[in-house]
């Protein structure tokens, strides 16, 4: 199989079986031993087609005599691949994109469709500079959806919440590949040593914009091969997540609970901030995932994390009123990390609408663990007021024993009414929300 055949197979799996793209990509790279240029081409085309699917289907509909919904899945995947190469991959000659797409038809028993595919792609080549998109003024939601390849319901939600200019800015930022950010494990090394080591390997990097322990990589590199990652001197963690752990404010000898801990990044950060002294209880609903936390902690040299399989929406009686700090990094829609996981944009609206009640139940249970004077932090990796501000407002309205707790980490990281949202277009981090509360008195449990 050549690389385009592998791309086709992967995209078809993602389309038909709803496979997770990141898992499928890792599997295909391993299975077919893709390296170098082939690996880069494969990854760019798979992620690119998934990211631009709405835009690609719109363009196909402009040049097709058939309704897109009536085109066979295999042929539609081939067309999306071809159009993407023509419009977004300047290194691929137009004639090659057309020829290879026709070849895919032949190799996948779709030879009868090769004329249709060839004609549509050649029409795309001829008219690619004059494609007419929806009118920004008359149809702003449709315009944003087609141009940035996001579902209309999501564009409308952000239009309602933030207005056109901010909405467009968020959509644009979420279509840009983010920097890879490392969290330095200060139990083993420091930021300056990590930067020096990267410089010696001729990898461009710089200090994080906000977090004191962050290092941003300024170029693509095979980070899995870095010795510093293998030996636990660093691990991959976005700056917004690092800042979330800082906002928790865990210090030496604290008792900390992380109610939704997997895969463990924030538990690790809090334990490191504590100097590996004290105790972190890391809970998660999925016990099979807790091995990630245990293995990660061991590699990082952390021995104060205890894991437990537990449903975060149910309070544990024996822990009520015991914790100095509690983190609820709640399950969420993940809309803030679409730049890293482009398939998340295609989540069903109905699935997201159920989340605020789940998030509130977890927060309601977790708050019982906080001792008087202790801190409770609620966070998500999404940009959705219903999952963020609305959950916080409901919590404060129904829990008089807590008040909003303002924080100021410097570098512009300052809360308002105990809340802060990191927007990918302005902070160059994941889209992320953090809120903090302090228990001002303890109820009778």
Question: What's a concise summary of this model?
Answer:
The chain has 445 residues and is an alpha/beta fold. The chain has four domains: 3-130, N-utilizing Substance Protein B Homolog, Chain A (Orthogonal Bundle); 140-174, no CATH class; 180-236, Alpha-Beta Plaits, CATH 3.30.70.1170; 240-439, 3-Layer(aba) Sandwich (Rossmann fold), CATH 3.40.50. 46% of the residues lie in helices and 16% in strands.
Tell me about this structure.
This protein has 445 residues and is α/β, with parallel strands linked by helices. It has 4 domains: 3-130, NusB-like (N-utilizing Substance Protein B Homolog, Chain A); 140-174, no CATH class; 180-236, Sun protein, domain 3 (Alpha-Beta Plaits, 2-Layer Sandwich); 240-439, Vaccinia Virus protein VP39 (Rossmann fold), CATH 3.40.50.150. 46% of the residues lie in helices and 16% in strands. Strands 5, 6, 7, 8, 9, 10, 13 and 14 form an 8-stranded mixed beta sheet that branches. A 4-stranded antiparallel beta sheet has the order 2-3-1-4. Strands 11-12 form a two-stranded antiparallel ribbon. Strand 5, helix 13 (265-273) and strand 6 form a beta-alpha-beta unit. Helix 1 packs parallel to helix 3 and helix 4 (53-63) packs across helix 5 (73-88). The longest helix is centred in the middle third of the chain and has 23 residues, at 152-174. It is globular and about 75 Å long. It starts with a helix and ends in a 6-residue tail after the last strand.
